[in-house]
What does this fold into?
Amino acid sequence: MPEPSAAPDLSIIIPMNAQVDIDNALTLLGDLAAYRGPAVVETIIVANNFDEASPPVRLAELEAAGARLVRIPHVEVRPGEVISFAARIPGAREARTSGTAHFDADVRVPNAAPLIAWYADRMQAGFDLAYTGVGHFDLPSATSVRASIAIHHASRWVKRVVLRVPTARGSNYAIRREMLLDAYERGMLADDLNVGPVVKKLGGRIAYNGDRALRVLTSGRMYRGGWSKLVRYYVYRLRYNLRVLPVSQRAASRTGRIHKESRYDYDGPSTPGESS
It folds into this structure.
């Protein structure tokens, strides 16, 4: 997907941990290159977490694959803010259009053409937030992991359908650039988990499409087997949701996160689903 010369209709923004995710990002760019529709699309990768004095030589491969690179050795974060979310903000500021779609560097998009077309259409139709379903790949075969995935999907369904909480996930959503940046500057966003509730609170138009053909697959690399880990993780996630989901202009103060050097924000238990 070469960088467009015309003004784009959709800006795809991908935060990337430059220490570990260059290969993943190249694979994702290959997926996204399947789009050949009428919408003009630009792809922006925010390369984060590297030594400014000796940046990875392989960053040039991403540009050769058609991405526009925003290089930020250490992304600026507020206390408590999720680094992978904060890294989306410089990309949004660089976007050349109002409609921004957000993926993580380690996701796979099996059907990029219809997904990108749907996101471009929803943004052009005036929606403020759009999102589709999320699956997984490379999951361990342990029974406890399968149970974790079942609980994960069930909890998302309850939040979205019963509680009417938009469950836009960090690995897969599109949002109006102006709303994203305004809510961020007002302190309302510190995690992708905040995005749906904040857009709803601000009166934004929201679209969801559950078609399995539009799913994005997130990496299962963080999943570990074990029933005790599963229980501890979901206790942690329930408490985290209860703290972070309520809309506030002090969102970062609610996360309870402590950042670590040279990590991409897998604080708390070493478990998956931080943006779910």
The first strand starts at residue 10 and ends at 17. The chain has a mean pLDDT of 88. Residues 10-254 form a domain with the Spore Coat Polysaccharide Biosynthesis Protein SpsA; Chain A fold (CATH 3.90.550.10).
